[in-house]
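Hi F.,

I've been meaning to write this up properly since the lab meeting, where we talked about keeping a consistent format for the predictions we share between groups. The idea is simple: the sequence comes first, exactly as it goes in, then the structure tokens exactly as they come out, then a line or two of notes. No screenshots and no reformatting. I'm using this chain as the first example so we have something concrete to point to.
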Amino acid sequence: MSVKLLHSDTTRLKSPIRDTVRQMSDKCMTQIRKAVSVIHPSLTVDILYSEQRAKSDPAATTVSTNIDHLSLESNGNDATVTTNYSPKKPFAPHAFVLVERVKSSVRNILDDSIKLQDSEHLFILYDELVLLNQIITAAYSDMFSSRKLIELMNFTKFSTDQILTKLNELKANDCVVLIQSQQFRFNDYHIRLELFKRKIKIIEHVHLDIIKLDEYENYVESLVFSPVKYHDLAYGLKSIVDQCQHIQVVCMDGSECYYEGGMNECKLNIGDYEGMSDVGGTYPIGEVFTEAKDLLKMNGNLTIWSYPSLENTVEVPPQPIKLTIKNGQLEFNPTNNEPQNCTETFNKLLTLIKDGEGDICVRKFGLGLNEGMGKHAIVQDIFAFERQHGMHISLGKKHNVSKAATIKKKETRFHINVFVDVKTITVDDTIIFDNGKYLLENLCEKK
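Output, unedited:
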């Protein structure tokens, strides 16, 4: 009996994933032949490339596989070899490639960010409601090959009491990974808050069911972000912005906006938890953010190319929407009380803020560093997309990290990130961003 392994076309893949596929070819074939020989020693395995498939025998048996999860399909009867986690259905070739890409990111997250030691437990709580969950879970489960203290638990197959019992067995410095199609709920038990109180590390993947199938590759690439790779850029940005007196933002249409009087100390979300009481957070990561010391000293015009819908997905208007900002608040055309090029969905967002808070305040100044997401690499979950490569600001009076003297906490309800169609950002006399790129060399010279 002949078994043919279908190899997908790699020419349409982005270069990092394409390189991964090529590097894995020999390793894959060795593992597959071993696994197939266990099922049936007389089977022979050949590679069937996608461009050859139409010419092949349509009756030939095919194998869909990844290294850890092998499924042999023959005349409708399945035999499965698995080590620890098996997806609901065998992965198609492209999904398998994504699993392999995420595996390297998982190792970097655990080693470089979380710094999980061999003596510390890794507990993975997941659901399988969408394919992306299964891809991420399969990648984390690869840690079984190198870790002894590891356990997986399917959220949908256990009661709340059973899950909480497992969580309560964990000790300080253990790590919990939450892979969620939406977000796990435990009545009055706030899982993230409670685990952080116990000094347990957390890695969260949330709202995965929002992300479209054709965006999976973008999400996977966003997980590649490493604090080792981006350390110099993030701390360079922090250093120059912390000390500045003036920031000029120029948009693609020539609109200009100015921040005067300096900025508050920048916060970093780059996976560097050194010295922090809480280790971990929601992934993907990659952001430097702050706000003006005096919110009233922000003036000018900004165009935005994207904003969240009321369902927290990414909206891209036909034309960038032009915001006018005066003394830190949005100002509207008196004839229609709307910004230029406003859409119906964006107007609904503005109405929501107006009804809840009155005047619309502009607060956050965010610099997203994650090159896995951007104009040409959308990820529908707005909370993940916040880290996209470029600039964003927040509309609304709420900000959980910064406090403003002019805003009372009881007045705050909304913090809505919108994405600036930025061309250049100049801090004092140094250009830090130009035509889609951060200028690390300028930051190094300034230091």
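Notes:
The chain has ten helices and 24 strands.
The CA atoms of residues 61 and 410 lie 65 Å apart.

If this format works for you, I'll send the rest the same way.

G.
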